[in-house]
Potassium inwardly rectifying channel subfamily J member 1a, tandem duplicate 6
Amino acid sequence: MKFLRKYLAERRIQKNRLVTKDGHCNIAYVSVRYSKLFISVLDFWTTLMEMRWRYVTLHLSASFVFSWFIFGLLWYWVAIANGDLTWQNPPANQSYCVVNMFDMTGAFLQSIETQMSIGYGFRLITPYCPSAITVFTVQCVFGTIIICFWCAVVMTKVARPKKRAKTISFSEKAVICAKQGVLCLQIRVANLRKSLTIGSQIYGKLLRTTVTPEGESIIMDQISIEFMVDSGKDNLFFVCPLTLYHVIDETSPFFHMTVDNLQHQEFELVVFLDGTAESTSSSYQVRTSYIPREIMWGYQFLPIISRNKDGKYCVDFSNFSKVVHVDTAPCAYYYHGESNVHDTSASTDDEGFQEMEKTDQSGASNM
């Protein structure tokens, strides 16, 4: 029973967050002027791009079968108009529009052969019926259009950067600890492929409800959060996992939070990573979010990059989500007003570049 209550509470928390851990937005639209079906049809291309593959395959198959059937009816009408069908008892010297097409089944097969350009065999169109030539021309044009359309749909879905975005991984939790004399909130992000991302930029939005001096409540007020590495915040060299940090100073919304009241706050930190895939030149965005219970005060990430005996850099992903407890002040005020200057040019880059032996770290915890 305790496990069930814990599961239901966890599920309720996940439903209440705006952005899920895998980047999906959890929001409902009500009182929309147009129905969801109308909007989907109005922007049908985006609907197809967002549709699951099984439904795309179903629509593709249905469109071909339906078009074959419709044009099969037209071929059947041509045969009826010319008196070619068996039940019409055509004379021996009948000039058929389509040779050997005597019923609806034959008309359907004639439609498939025409639209798919597989070549005529048993059935063959003749030049005696203008109506048959008209149907033949229209179906050839329509068949070319529908094939090109579905080829474009399939190629666009395959080339989408959505799958590339799934190879970018964020740490499950964020940590707060001291770095170079200032208090910082840190997250870790990794590129799971060897191909680089070009022009990578990371930033965050703190979402919370605020009350203005006039007494107006602003739900989901967005406050910009800047993340950076020691070399800067723009155009990250994303060749290996990076530990990104946000300096908690007087301008930070985390400045007035302490180790005691952090878990009682109500906010959601949404982190965005924009980049361009090097291999396809497709831009993509990866999102995740952190709520107060997913931010650990007084911990830091373990290094995950080392060098082997041959001098080659190695990434140990077993430490990607591991943290270790460190002594940290209970609030940012301890660092406020001191003469510590955050100099990004005189740093030792990300903690992950510290050379280390591949041994288990004592005191580490898995997030």
About this structure: The chain is about 30% helix and 25% strand.
